[in-house]
Amino acid sequence: MQPAKTLDASSLQDQIRGRLEKDILDGTLSPGMPIDEKALAASFSISRTPVREALLLLSARGLVDIVPRTGIYVRQLRANELVAMMEALGELEGVLARLAALRIGPALRVELQRALEGTAACARADDAEGYQLANATLHDVIYRASGNPFIVEQAQTVRLRIAAYRGRMFEKPGRLAASQREHERVVEWILKGHADNAAEAMRDHISVGGKVFADLVLVNKLG
């Protein structure tokens, strides 16, 4: 019988980081919430060293705050930081849409059309929760079609950092229908191979969403 394989330190760090990122993305860990390093280590049945290293990586990415002699917390962003990140996301996704228009292949063309049908169905049903998931799927197809994993990583990091604050964005009356119309323009230009138009449509899409987002942050004091 061969001995059981053990995970190396980097694999453990990746697992812990992945768990925390998922919990931040789905709202299990909300901004300002403390992270119990000891409990996290116990849940993985490991020492606290790889947990600490994973937390240091998340701190470097701006997802957690490590406060000496106080604790570790999910990063809580100020309103101006959130608005700035939406601006950055618009530029990043504009570049990705441009690249997708130039590089998308047959299989991803089909995926993109299906993803658009998915957002359309949720918009017609006024299903904000379903639309949020379908929206993520559509943007993921565009990311993959871009063929540039480095820019994708930057966009995903921004999306992860603002995820906890964006959950209510699609609840504004009329936002689902408007977002769907914006998606249709983005997809149209990508499928036609019009790179500049695709980039502009995507920047407009994120910009409009950002204005809705800013209203929620400022009016409802989400920041």
Structure, described:
- A two-stranded antiparallel ribbon has the order 1-2.
- 73% of the residues lie in helices and 4% in strands.
- Strand 1 (64-67) and strand 2 form a beta hairpin.
- It has nine helices and two strands, in the order αααββαααααα.
- It is globular.
- The longest helix has 26 residues, at 195-220.
Biggest sheet strand order reads 1-2
Give the low-confidence spans: 1-6
Tally of individual helices: 9
Q: Write down the Rg.
A: 19 Å
Strand tally: 2
Content of β-strand: under 5%
Q: What structural class do the secondary elements suggest?
A: mainly alpha
Helix percent reads over 70%
**What is the string of SSEs from the N terminus onward?**
HHHEEHHHHHH
The overall pLDDT, averaged over residues, is 86
Distance between the termini: 56 Å
Main sheet properties: 2 strands, antiparallel
Identify the overall geometry. globular
Strands, helices and their partners?
Elements: H1 9-25, H2 37-44, H3 48-60, E1 64-67, E2 71-74, H4 79-103, H5 106-124, H6 128-146, H7 149-166, H8 175-192, H9 195-220
Antiparallel strand pairs: 1-2
